[in-house]
Write a sequence for this structure.
């Protein structure tokens, strides 16, 4: 389904604008202005004349120009009438923010809306939706003010979230952690466009490299599996499913009007469709980052290089726990490293450069591992607290990473000094983590994805 | 065992001071000066006369004053001689930072050190130790410069870490995240004082409310279990064990010279001793924070209050996953809330105040749950992005939290705006989390601890 106009519309009508700065229509208008949206904006409300010095039309049909997208924020009971107006105006795409339908027990009203959308061949995101955000076109239907939630920069990750609240948490986190995003869609009750339609669209979307999906229920399981199988061949799809436990289902139902279905059924379907599943929002971000930034992995043998023995061991534990393999260096690499490194360095399950490690020791060890066919993934563990590590380590890692020979993942745990160095690497497109356990679980997602390709 | 002088010594000799500012002895001296340590410092090195304008003694026996603690940083082969000097000087406590003993294959040298320590009745933290830090006395034997790793503020959490590298990661994180700590000990090879001795000491220590232990191996299992059982009755003990998988053992052995032992044996021992186990450093901190700050829980029935339905559901899932229970409100509470709250609020498995929630709605809901005997723990989920939540929510939560009726845990996910409000609550002693999953796993640790008391 072509959903392009939801993100790239050049003319938008906000139907349900209000003078009251706390009302949703007003907030959306402000956000579109503040986001520097380049298209034409039109405001509609039968009772208003002007909002923020801009003309307000009584009806969308009073507007002479063509409208590519309508954002509807009127009260629920008026929605059917507004859709008729949109149909008459030949508007083909609407986002309905309004709530008070199936999720509040008003199935009849939602059915009426659905019927009208079908009759006029209108594509609809909603009802009960937070709407859409496109970091490239700056089309922004989210009613959250920018002082409370900044908007993310441009990048390759797109998010689909059924839930509005999880959606805004996701977009706010993405901004804070400087992840570049492409598109965000929170689609609410899925009255006519559902998760599968959006997933299929993002699969084809050139601005989207990675897709993250937060679901509560799935409307049509067969359709979803079919689409997911197709899309996961094109790009990584990471899925988080809320309301996955049977006890939670009654809440999920009241929240979106769809049954959530049982845990096992979902997990099996996700696996069958090659989706990357996690039950943690935090992990969803980590998986998206590693898959977006890192060179594809060719296998699951991980080589750790560390300047802290105990620190390295904590990652080894996680490698075993995640069913990854500890790399066994080629004999040549081993003896060459033994010659080049200082006496306090030890090489067994990991390369422990010890607290005597210099940046140059890392250089020697990284280069050897990149050239060793027994190593698939390099996990660099660096405690920057130890004085002998100087800032030349940043260029060393960046240079090797730019060669794109093997995935290089860096983990560093600490405070301000550590964090500044971590961020410097991130800015140079090196993937970094704060904790060994999250680095390893993310490597697992990376390795699994490429092993199935 | 009385280890008080390791933390409260009024006179310290640094044996192995160097003019070279990158050498360990020099770094420790600088840190003690910069930490504003109030006791007397003496420097010892047979070949130096002055370091940073301070007199250097050729031998510790040339010092006239009594020395309560010696910090030893000389090369390994000289350590036995230095211990004899300390014995002659009647020094009863030494921290040996020097490495190059059992962990590097020099068992003989370590045995010699052990024998000498016994002969002179000297208590020793080390060999191969990072040493100690006391946030109250400012005694600081860590050789990490302060510009690379700030030191944490005063508080109630004490850390024991066998591994130096994990130890410094822990202390650096504690500082960054503003956790107050009491004592930190990284004890290396445990030549005569081991993890059990330190645990026992911290159990009695009045400045320590919570104990966190990072272990790789345990020297004497029976002794450890006996001490752990005793101490865990006095205060919460959280344990993280590195090298827990059999495949990792050979690395653990080369790192500390002790066998790590098998996973199941350890887990059983921890459980038997009522220790709180986690395999994640991140969780260790979360557990310590919640146990330090929160009112004791009387049961495992959790009531969620949220302004985002999907956001609430993600926590419900985690409640089930963690074997906690979803609270079922008393009928009276239910009908009273129905009367007081607005129409869009729904009450089932959770109290969903919806995006129309105001700070006052939270006040109504919190008060009702505090007075409902069917509720043991309150989990407040607040998306501050939604404009109707104003900053009065901070005082509302702080006031209820100060009543100490039931544990109140707040989770908020988002960016800068959200984080500022989160930090304000933390400063007022309210416990907060960034992600629903970490809030719930921490509540699990809290509930489990008090259910066993």
């Amino acid at each position: 389904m072509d959903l392009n106009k939801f993100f790239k519309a050049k003319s938008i009508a906000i139907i349900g604008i209000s003078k009251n700065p706390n009302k949703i229509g007003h907030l959306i208008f402000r956000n579109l202005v503040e986001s520097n949206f380049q298209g034409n904006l039109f405001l509609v409300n039968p009772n208003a004349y002007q909002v923020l010095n801009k003309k307000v039309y009584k009806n969308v049909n009073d507007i002479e120009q063509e409208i590519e997208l309508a954002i509807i924020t009127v009260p629920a009971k008026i929605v059917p009438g507004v859709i008729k107006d949109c149909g008459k105006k030949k508007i083909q795409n609407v986002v309905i923010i309004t709530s008070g339908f199936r999720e509040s027990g008003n199935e009849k009203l939602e059915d009426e809306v659905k019927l009208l959308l079908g009759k006029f061949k209108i594509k609809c995101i909603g009802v009960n939706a937070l709407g859409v955000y496109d970091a490239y076109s700056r089309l922004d239907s989210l009613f959250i003010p920018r002082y409370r939630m900044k908007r993310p920069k441009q990048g390759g990750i797109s998010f689909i979230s059924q839930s509005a609240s999880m959606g805004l948490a996701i977009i706010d986190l993405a901004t804070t952690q400087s992840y570049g995003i492409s598109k965000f869609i929170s689609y609410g009750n899925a009255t006519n466009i559902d998760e599968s339609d959006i997933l299929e669209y993002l699969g084809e979307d050139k601005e989207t490299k990675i897709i993250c999906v937060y679901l509560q229920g799935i409307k049509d399981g067969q359709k979803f599996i079919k689409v997911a199988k197709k899309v996961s061949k094109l790009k990584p799809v990471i899925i988080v499913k809320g309301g996955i436990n049977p006890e939670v289902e009654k809440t999920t139902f009241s929240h979106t009007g769809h049954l959530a279905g049982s845990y096992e059924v979902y997990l099996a379907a996700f696996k069958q469709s090659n989706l990357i599943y996690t039950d943690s929002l935090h992990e969803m971000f980590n998986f998206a980052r590693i898959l977006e930034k890192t060179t594809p992995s060719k296998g699951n043998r991980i080589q750790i290089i560390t300047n802290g023995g105990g620190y390295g061991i904590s990652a080894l534990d996680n490698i075993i726990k995640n069913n990854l393999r500890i790399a066994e260096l080629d004999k040549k690499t081993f003896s060459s490293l033994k010659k080049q490194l200082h006496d306090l360095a030890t090489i067994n399950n990991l390369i422990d450069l010890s607290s005597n490690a210099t940046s140059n020791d890392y250089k020697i060890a990284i280069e050897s591992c990149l050239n060793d066919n027994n190593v698939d993934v390099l996990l660099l563990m660096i405690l920057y607290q130890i004085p002998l590590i100087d800032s030349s380590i940043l260029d060393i890692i960046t240079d090797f990473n730019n060669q794109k020979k093997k995935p290089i993942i860096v983990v560093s745990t600490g405070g301000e000094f550590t964090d500044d160095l971590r961020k410097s690497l991130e800015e140079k497109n090196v993937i970094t983590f704060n904790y060994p356990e999250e680095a390893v679980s993310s490597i697992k997602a990376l390795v699994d994805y490429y092993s199935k390709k």
Q: What stands out?
A: Chain A has 16 helices and 20 strands.
